[in-house]
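_Backbone structure tokens_
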Amino acid sequence: MISPLMPVYARQPVAFDHADGMYMFDTDGRKYLDFYAGIGVMCLGHSHPALVKALCDQGQKLWHTANTYRIPEGERLAKRLVDASFADTVFFTNSGAESIECAIKMVRKYHHDKGNKGKYRLVTMASAFHGRTLAGIAAAGQEKLTKGFEPLPDGFDVVPFGDMDAVKAAIGPETGGIMVEPVQGEGGIRPLSDAQLQELRQICDENGILLVLDEIQCGMGRTGKLFAHEWADVKPDIVACAKGIGGGFPLGACLATEDAASGMVVGTHGSTYGGNPLAMAVGNAVLDVMLAPGFLTHVVEMGDMLHVRLAALMQKHALITEVRGKGLMAGIRVPSIPTRDIVSDLIKRGMLPAVAGDMVVRMLPPLILDESHIDEAIGHLDAALTDFAASNAAD
């Protein structure tokens, strides 16, 4: 018999009661170091006082209003994002999947209004994750996402990750853009190089198509810049973001240049809850902290430290074959042990990491961590890998 809660998740046998900063506490009172952050969402950790205050203050005034009226906090948040990024305009959503949908529609509308109605296809990369909508899974093209949901929406050409020659070969008269993650998350914490991102921009310019970046997981400070593409000094046309932008409150955004968004006029898109006053208040509170002097510098320092410690751990443990990622988006590849087994073991030890593709243990800690938290995480990983190595040797 099916459970009242639809069984679409393989849930770990732990339930949480409350959380504070870098730690979560289960219903039995046990403490866990959070290196997952709700899939990279809790960028400022748990119960951050600025976010709690913003939510409570706004909640006592106005929760929701239709987007047929002005929402001053939304106007303010959009202006701040524009001022801090490549973008000229922003559409607010409730999730990353909605941000991707907005981006896809924007590409099609752009070319339609330019008189190129046939240019609707997007080149994407294998192992990507662009959300769970039909268009999102079609764009990723992974069988584990698409099986049973056919027929899929048309318009996506998937090429091998990082293969620039394949990208060029996939571009045809119907191609409207290229959509990639600067750092793949679900696909195994795999960054595109600065040179690859720069080449993608050049390919788009040469072919008169749009560069769409999915920064839902790697954006909002995760790599030490507000957006990951900034490291490559690349200006995209459209960026989809979510997760950290709301610090735990459901919030996403689709950012675009004025040219890319030129077709998005009244009536072309909308969202009932997107950009509501509660979300906008929290989003502004997140930016208050994230854009403060020194915050992103701290992320860079902690990211460098984490990767150095993980590299040292790899030297100690032959089970680790690769350390991946950028900033505080990190992963270790352990191909000889089922990734879920490692994650389950670490949870029992009091650490919360996550599974990623390509046999990678994924770490997305809140951006507020310090050296002591990195030491604690490395200690848990060291102990777990030692035990797995001993078990393998015994077998």
Notes: The longest helix spans residues 371-394. The domain at 49-290 is CATH 3.40.640.10 (Aspartate Aminotransferase; domain 2). The chain has two domains: 16-34+294-394, 49-290.
